[in-house]
Amino acid sequence: MLYYLFQYLNQYFDLPGAGVFQYISFRAAFAIVASLIISLLIGKSLIRYLQKKQVGEIVRDLGLEGQLKKQGTPTMGGLIILAAILIPTLLFAKLQNVYIIIMLLCTIWLGLIGFLDDYIKVFKKDKRGLAGKFKVVGQVILGLVVGLILNFSDSVTVRREIVKSNPKERIEMSEFQSSTEKDTSVTAKFVDVHSPITTIPFVKNHEFNYSKLLTWFSSDLEKYTWILYTLVVIFIITAVSNGANITDGIDGLAAGSSAIIGATLGVFAYVSGNINTANYLNIMYIPNSGELVIFLAALIGACIGFLWYNTYPAQVFMGDTGSLALGGIIGTLALVLRKELLIPILCGIFLVENLSVIIQVGYFKYTKRKYGEGRRVFKMSPLHHHYQKLNYPEPKIVTRFWIVGIMLAVLTIITLKLR
Fold first, then answer.
1. What is the three-class DSSP state of 124?
2. In this structure, are residues 307 and 301 in contact, taking their beta carbons and an 8 Å threshold?
3. What does each C-alpha distance from 35 to 27, 44, 103, 299 come to in angstroms?
4. What is the pLDDT of residues 274-319, one digit of tens each?
5. Residue 9: C-alpha distances to residues 1, 4, 20, 25 (Å)
């Protein structure tokens, strides 16, 4: 909103300083500061309100040290994160940008699903909350909508080079670029195309078109690529959303991990949305994706601001209101930036937490069938509970998980050049 206001003031009144709102870096800086302030201010008031309404977490006795002390700690703190993301984005981002629209839709939709789950748990006194199948249906609906937008929106493009038979022929960057993007030193012609392309990490020719998975069987199947790609979108959004939800088990883990991932995606959004940087790094240029830096700045600020109240011992839990939304946001951002194949590295914490549950449940069922009694790989799953059972203090577990998350983030950024 403020972007359009200052654009109007600059255009019609030549207001000194109004033009600075054109710069993504300036608006991103304001977004992260605003997000921090909003989360700190709203957090204090919301915690008081939740305590007054006795909106407390119902804790199951899992035999973990200090667990029962958390009984009654306010939950639904994800509302702090949602407000701190949405308000700065609405204030500082270009709201007609298709990627911003997708992210706002994702944040609100999954936030509502998580809120409904927390509401049933707290106010209806039903520990099960919203049935798992309804959560999955909601995630699938979002994945379907996002997949269709990415497949069919004319605003979702990548810039491709047109290769000429005469390599000595000089071709100017013409109608395919705005005046601010022209680079007369470039001797190739580029066009914005709509294509289901992604990035393969650690590979020199690092772009992959999903249509190749179908044309490998038959060239006639290429027209069905949109179906395959939509299924991939649904799977990724659902998987990452649930991964973040499972990770939200001890104070500060999910919020801190999400902030680290968000900062990494912010780097990718900036370099992928800047034509000069994309050309220098020889990576895919995604027109208009640079605007996501504002959204990611708000996300980082929201997570860090929430940690003010969520670090051990937590004054408030994010609940599914926050965890489902954060996971879905991260998965959607990776898809939009064509970096979904980096998710196993970047979201390694979420992945390991998810796998620990799958391995534990699968091995228990297998051994029960084979030996008559179930056996376990871990003392408890998800993985962070395993370390709690080994009597590691919560702050140490969280800090070490953050350190691993930072190492994975650095490895992810290195893929920009290491291939």
1. coil
2. no
3. 12, 14, 16, 8
4. 999 998 888 889 999 999 999 999 999 999 999 999 998 889 999 8
5. 13, 9, 12, 20
8 pLDDT higher than 70? yes
Average pLDDT over residues 173-187: 42
| 410 contact partners, CB below 8 Å, separation of at least 6 | none
Q: What is the pLDDT of residue 75?
A: 85
Instruction: Measure the CA–CA gap between 407 and 403, rounded to whole angstroms.
Output: 6
Q: How far is CA 353 from CA 174, 212, 305, 357, 408, in A?
A: 49, 32, 24, 7, 15
For 321, 332, 341, 397, 416, the CA distances from 139, given in Å and listed in that order, are 13, 11, 20, 30, 30
Burial letters 117-141, b for 16+ CB under 10 A, else e: bbbbbbeeeeeebbeeeebeebbee
* Residue position matching structure tokens 């030549």: 14
Q: What is the pLDDT of residues 58-100, one digit of tens each?
A: 656 566 666 666 777 888 899 999 999 999 999 999 999 999 9
Distance CA 226, CA 147 (A): 8
Asked if 281 and 417 touch (Cβ cutoff 8 Å), the reply is yes
| Rounded distance between C-alpha atoms, residue 241 and residue 247, angstroms | 10
Taking the mean position of all CA atoms in its chain, how far away is CA 70?
28
Rounded to 5°, the CA angle 262-145-355 comes to: 50
Going by the DSSP 8-state scheme, the letter that residue 45 receives in this structure is H
